[in-house]
Amino acid sequence: MSEEHSHDHEHSHLDETAIRVRALETLLTEKGYVEPGALDVFIDTYENQVGPRNGAQVVARSWVDMDYKKRLAEDASAAIAEFGFTGRQGEHMVAVFNTPDTHNMVVCTLCSCYPWPVLGLPPAWYKSAPYRSRVVVDPKGVLKEFNVDLPESVEIKVWDSTAEIRYLVVPEQPEGTENFTEEQLVELVNRNSMIGTGLASPATDVEGAGS
Amino acid sequence: MSHLRRAEAEALQKLPAIPRDETGPVFAEPWQAQVFAMTLALYERGLFSWPEWAEHLTAAINEAQLAGDPDCGDSYYLHWLNALENILQSKQIVLGDQLHIVQHAWAEAADSTPHGQAIELSAQQRAALVVNSSSRIG
Known about the structure:
The complex is a heterodimer.
Chain A: H1 16-30, H2 36-49, H3 52-64, H4 66-74, H5 76-81, E1 92-97, E2 102-107, H6 116-119, H7 124-127, H8 129-137, H9 139-145, E3 155-160, E4 165-170, H10 182-186, H11 191-195
Parallel strand pairs in A: 1-4, 2-3
Helix pairs in contact in A: 3-4, 8-9
Chain B: H1 3-14, H2 30-44, H3 50-66, H4 76-90, H5 96-111, H6 123-137
């Protein structure tokens, strides 16, 4: 596909990448490997139905229900499946819990493995070479870029995901939220806090709470 | 600061900043969604295992970085497309010359479609593809 055509405005144009994708889809459809309708279902699922809110529900439940927290620590895949969130790639989920002494961060240094069932698809920065290479050698520096300043005494653990094992960070419950309902707590669990590049949002971020 | 630490710090400064997107779209363009969905569909049909896919994706990323891609996340689905073409060719599910023929058909279809209308392959083009691909697969 190296030859350049000159195009006037009366004709349509597809760039090289779009042509490569259409060609693949045409061939795979003709050979019976994919059905266009089935592709749309995958796309809709990941664009509209699976996202960080899934993970937020898991985290909020672990804050209010100590039995659930125990199950999540022992077998995260099973505990997450209680919500109906299951992985399609046969990946094994592991939950890592932040404490006052330990902060966890997740990366995939090789490609961009990510816990899709609980977080949806990864943000651009997670997929970028700068994040993937720097978080391993300088996690504190990366945290500063995300405006997270932790006390010197806090140990940072970086977990490298693989095709088989995906990690979910369970952030610490924010102060002053002891009387919050589970639904209110879900609102405080943002995406970055479950990757470890952020903390759960402060109590003041929930409307009508704390009064 | 030791030499090692200094060298590390200097190496770090040479890396581009981490790109930020707080609420960006999941897929920036429709083709990205198509590549993603095709990969999942083929995986679910058992054409490859997920670790096998991760291996091809890693190889595609390394290759792009060697070719000078700063790899800041925006080229992520281009890595997927390269990995998908590679894994399908290595398994002989799709052959390189078949792909080339169909790519040309789509380029021609775009050229003969007035601006603003949906670009489709004609029935004639599709029929030709079926003949081509079946005769090549044998």
